[in-house]
Amino acid sequence: MRLSVVIVNYNVRYFLEQCLASVRRAMQGIEGEVWVVDNHSADDSVRMVQKQFPEVRLIANQNNPGFAVANNQAIRQSTGEYVLLLNPDTLVEEDTFQKCLDFMDAHPDAGALGCKLIDGSGKYLPESKRGFPSPWVAFCKTFGLSALFPHSRMFNRYYLGHLSENETHEVDVLAGCFMFMRRTALDRSGLLDEAFFMYGEDIDLSYRIVKAGFKNYYFPDTRIIHYKGESTKKGSLNYVRTFYQAMIIFSRKHFTGSRAGIFVLMLQGAIWLRAGMTLSQNFFRKIWLPLLDLILIYAGLWLVKDFWANYFYHDPDYFQSSVLWFNFPLYSLVWVISVWLGGGYDSRYDLGRLMRGLGFGTLLLLAIYGLLDLDYRPSRAQLLLGALWAAGATAGLRFVLHFKEFGNFRIGQNRIKNLLIIGSEAESNRVQEVLRQTQHSKNLIGTLVTTGPAEHSLGNPDQLTDIVRIYDVNEIVFCSKDLTTNQITRWMTELGPQVSYKMVAAESLGIIGSSSPNEPGELYTVDIRYNIAQPGQRRNKRVLDLAWCIFLVITSPYWLLVSRNRALILKNWLAVFLGRRTWVSYAESTDNSSLPPLKPGVFNPSSGLNVTAFSEPMLTRLHFLYAKDWSIWRDLGILFKTLKHGI
Please, what are the domains in the chain? Predict the structure, then answer.
């Protein structure tokens, strides 16, 4: 057998579906086998592979043992002369495997081969070729010197920036998303080191293949699309920790003496540095707009104070200094928090949410105002004028931000993308139906028909560049059933990243794409939309948890003396308050792996019901409906029921 393809999957069903479809085409005429190792995905990946790709040899793990372990499971059972490790978020061209086989046959010194990688926007990915992470290389990468001098042999050894991306080169390290290896090289170097859970195993294996007497080659004569980051989120602290810990494992394994100590010290410093940068970036992304609103509202209140003191009271010193350090901060905070609670920062340009939040905050401030001591009640008129200022200023800020981002003031009118579908007329109609069911608004320009009758086609495939320019196309959906991956990658690289690209496999209900290598991919699918998975609803659930904690403190005489739940509440109150638990969640006795994750709950949707009369499917359905239709009122109903019945 010539080739064994090994794919490790974790919760990327629709990307895996596209990948396997491209692998099936690339395997035509090649004696080979395809292995998929699923690391306990919760997105129905296993059933999809069994149903749509029966020729694939499937290993379904009951836990997630990590990338290296999963690859080794399949490699040990495979029999190919060559072994390809392939990520599920990739698409290979139809002749990729044959070109790689020809190159490896012609270069017996080659132990492993990598190819040119492009991302979901058609851009070249520099990790297609890399150097070994020596202390100097790691220093330049960590502190940004490689980005400042991308073509320098000295400063960008990490991505070998001095080597042309369009020429074949002998390189140090290959990307783990596509490692085409000779079986004899694997036998001599050993399999993937299972000490690496994720990241670093490709560097380690590349290093050991070279030490075993073989060479690693970068081969640009074929391309693959790598969406990147679909199984992990690179903006997370978990990514930073996992990646740099992998580098520490590598350095301790392959370097000795003071060199190893210096390298480990550098990497440990890099962990703290990158973790701090990640925390700061994530925090700034969340806080910058509320902070701007806060500053803007406070500054406006100061102006309102001066205006009202002069205009109404004819005394510029009428208001006491307490308004500056008590009233104005209180007003500003209440308005900003009310906008946050109302989802005004989830959708930046939703003026309706903004005004609802400010309106609620104003009503709340008027109620608070009446409870304040007379010394802290300067003027209701000032509060109302401040509310008008807050509404006008924050709305104005959003108009400015919208103009800066989109070049127009049509705020609240989301620009509908001009969509072009490339494929047969039948597949185009199916794509339109998927988009309709998923409620994704698109301005369909038309279809570029590549197979079948072309009477309704916008033109010929050779005219694609002109069609995109003439009709101002923003998004293209490629129908993989009717197109080759070679065609798709060629068009993507020709048109460039100014167009957003999506793909749909034959009979698939998922349309996938990714416009940035650092962002999670986009997915249009007719799958269930869970309310509990929405950011605003998750925040509301957390606010409800805290509010219920306060309510329990106020009503403590009742549940301490009467309720049979007092032991349960006392035991869990602090955990809920600290965010380790939630008052209502799924029952731990049921399988909830397919539902959006929640913190462990004190109560569950079946609390207060005669659970013994429920079958397992009924309880599963109950939890499904809870996640799908969640609202504050659903949780409140469960909580009041538990107090009422003392269950």
Answer: 3-129+165-231 (3.90.550.10), 233-412 (no CATH), 418-525 (3.40.50.20), 531-645 (no CATH)
